[in-house]
Amino acid sequence: MQNNDSNIRLIFLGDITGRQGRTAVKSYIELLKKEDPECFIIANIENASHGFGLTKKNYIDLSESGIDCFTSGNHIWDKKDIYEYIDEADNLVRPINYPKGTKGKGVQIFDIRGQKLAVMNVLGRVFMPPIDSPWQVVTEEIDRLKEVGVEHIIIDFHAEATAEKICFSKFLSHKYNNNDNALIKGFFGTHTHVQTADEQIYNNMAYITDVGFCGAKDSVIGMEFETSLKRLSTSLPEKYEISENPIAQINGVDVLIEKTKTSIIKRINLVIDNNIERGTKNDEEECLVT
Questions:
Q1: Annotated catalytic residue: which of 50, 75, 174, 193?
Q2: Is residue 83 predicted with pLDDT exceeding 60?
Q3: Cα–Cα nearest to 107, from 42, 22, 170, 204
C-alpha cells in the first residue's frame, strides 16, 4: 500500500477471541511492524479473555504487542477487574452510548504525526441489550470533536443487524463528509464475528458491515462446536467453551487515510498456525498458512 508523510495506514482487526486469537494477532503484528513500523493498529478486544471480556493481564500484554487502540462492545464488562483499570486505560474505548457516569471513555484522541485521529466505539440497539440512542449521542460527540480540531474519526459500530450498520454509516457520512473534506474516515462493523464481503469507499469513508474476528478457525465464531451444538439444538443452558484449535484466522481491514479522504480499503483474511515457533524469516513466512 502506497504511503507518504501525510497519509496514515490504519489496520483494524476484528474481535480478538480467546488465547488463539491473541497469539495469532501478536504474530501478525510482529510481521506487520517489520513491514510498516508506522501503521496505526486498532483491534476490538471485548472477547479477548477466554471469549468474554478483557482481563488487565491480557490488556497489558496486547498493549505491549504493538496495538495502538482497543475498541470493545457489550462484553467488555464480563471480567470484573475491568472496573479497576478502565479509567486509566488510555488506549481503550468502551461504547460511548452507555449512560453518563459509566466508567471508561467512549472515544480516545491520538496524535499521529501532527494529525488528530479520534477512535469512537458505539453499540447498536437492534437485537442488542438496552442502550442510549447512538443517533443523538454520536452526533453530539462528533460536533465536540470538530471543535477541538480532530481531523479523522474512526468508528467501531458494535451491532447485530446489518441494516442498522448500513443505515447509521450512511447517515453519518452524509452529515459529516463531503467532496472537499471527509471527517469520518472509517466506519467498521463488529460483533457478529463473520467477515462480510462489502468493503468499499462510500462518500470518501472506508466501510465494511463486519470486519470478522481473530480466533480459532475451526470453531463456531471462536467457540467449541460441541458446546455450541448442545446450546443451539436443545435450547437448554450450556456454557460456551472457547476453541483451542491452534489454526487461527485473522480478519480485519487495511485502509489508507489521506488528509481529506480515505482512498483505499482492503480486507484482511489470513490463516495462522499458532504451533509454528517463529525465529527465522522462513519460520515467519510459514506461520501464515494463507
A1: 75
A2: yes
A3: 42
